Every structure is written in C-alpha cells, then in structure tokens.
C-alpha cells in the first residue's frame, strides 16, 4: 500500500511561501506572523483501513482519523469553521481537497515529505524529515 511510506513521525524542516498563502486566505498580519514561527510535527499511523494522524502545533495536540475517498468534516485551524475534506491516494501521492478551496498534495522526495498547499493559485510548501 503506497500510504506506508508516509507512516512514521515527521518534523518540520522548512516552509516556503507561507505568508503569501495566508494573505490569500485573508489571515491577518498577527496570525500570519505567529504561523510563520511554528514548527509543526506529526505522526502517521495505520489502523486497518483507517489513517490516524497525531499533530502537535504550539500548545495543541490534534488526532485525526479518516479513510481515503470518504468525505469527512474537519475544522479549519485558521478560522475554526467546519470544512468538508476528502483524502485520496493517487499512486504515490496523497492528496487532500477541502470545501473551502484549499488543496494539499503530499509526496516523498529523497526521503523527505513535501507538502504543497494551494488556495486560489497561491501555493506554499512545507518540507518534513522523518524522525529517527
């Protein structure tokens, strides 16, 4: 199963274009400044046919459980509003489509996890390294 390459713990290495992306989403300057200083980490696990993601961001922890190709409701971390989310696997690529117009494309390149998020033509990229 292609998702196996994503299983494990990942730590943030760098971000590119985050401020521009957040501006496009209408996020104010104070929240943008805070977001650019955060170094997120997360762990991906498999539980049967479900994916479990444990995220650590600032002082918050979040656990998300989902199945590929099944729409679910999640909360947008920027404004707290509910958003419909569908996760899919396309070969080796893990994609996410949200009802607010945000898309995410994840891939493993040279052992690093590359996450590209796009909103209205503006893309930012985060690079994660697998924890030992």
TrEMBL record:
Entry's Gene Ontology molecular function annotations: lipid binding
Gene3D superfamilies in UniProt: 2.40.128.20
InterPro entries according to UniProt: Calycin (IPR012674), Fatty_acid-bd (IPR000463), ILBP (IPR031259)
Family, as annotated: Belongs to the calycin superfamily. Fatty-acid binding protein (FABP) family.
Protein name listed in UniProt: Putative myelin P2 protein
Organism: Stichopus japonicus (Sea cucumber)
Classification of source organism: Eukaryota, Metazoa, Echinodermata, Eleutherozoa, Echinozoa
